[in-house]
Design goal:
Blueprint: E1 2-10, E2 16-21, E3 33-37, E4 41-46, E5 52-62, E6 66-73, H1 75-78, E7 86-91, E8 97-102, E9 107-113, E10 127-133, H2 135-140, E11 144-156
Antiparallel strand pairs: 1-2, 1-11, 2-4, 3-5, 5-10, 6-9, 6-11, 7-8, 7-10
Amino acid sequence: MTAFEFVRRAAPVGAALVSLWMAAPAFAGGPSASISTVSRTMTGSWYGSGDLTISTNLCIASDSHRYQLTIVAAPLFRDHVSGSPIRFTFRDQTGAEQTAELNGQAQLSFTGTTTSTDPHCADTRPAVLEVTFPEHLLTAQQAGDYMSQFALSVQPL
């Protein structure tokens, strides 16, 4: 399972910094799949109004070439369902795109296809995960660090 870090810090003139971090181990034995990031962080600046969209490139490898990506949300984000929900858009390595909204449930899942069996994705382009945080959620949180608010896991199909 992979952990994200969600950070909102107070900044001058109502600005805030939101960042997500993740790292993941590779799995061994039988059918396997692994996930890691191409860049180590997702960062975006938010200045007090409007939604914030941030994205990261993911290296997802699977020896079966099909996988399920699961995103688990902490109660902090599951409990804030009024207004616009958090939106996740996932594009696998083939370019197929799926979008889902976090509407109070504990997790979301996406299926994907990859031609990569290399856990470093040297042989293919990365998948992309994009997260859109609605303004009302960003304004409702106090400045501070929000560790491990999302977790990612991947399994072969």
